[in-house]
């Protein structure tokens, strides 16, 4: 899945495809860190790597801001562990 749009709003990263929300990630910033609090994927899009893509966007966003991504969400922790981020 590579044809999605990423939208950033206040402490949220959301993925859209054809103007439909696929899911989102909530985060907050700390000193030198971006904490991934929660990842949600719309039920009809589960099992399609949407969650993984959302976490990857969160990691990318953190690094662009010069922050270290840190998972609070257990799903984000699993994805980050698989990618060697933690």
UniProtKB/TrEMBL annotation:
It comes from the Bacteria. Signal peptide: none annotated. The lineage of its organism: Bacteria, Pseudomonadati, Bacteroidota, Flavobacteriia, Flavobacteriales. CDD domains: NAT_SF (cd04301). This is Uncharacterized protein. It comes from Candidatus Ornithobacterium hominis. It holds the Pfam family Acetyltransf_CG. Residues 1-86, 5-86 form the N-acetyltransferase domain. GO terms for molecular function: acyltransferase activity, transferring groups other than amino-acyl groups.
């Amino acid at each position: 899945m590579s044809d999605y749009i990423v939208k950033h709003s206040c402490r949220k990263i959301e993925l859209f495809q054809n103007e439909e929300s696929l899911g989102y990630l909530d985060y907050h910033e700390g000193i030198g860190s971006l904490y991934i609090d929660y990842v949600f994927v719309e039920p009809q899009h589960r099992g399609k790597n949407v969650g993984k893509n959302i976490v990857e966007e969160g990691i990318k966003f953190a690094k662009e801001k010069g922050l270290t991504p840190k998972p609070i969400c257990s799903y984000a922790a699993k994805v980050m562990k698989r990618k060697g981020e933690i």
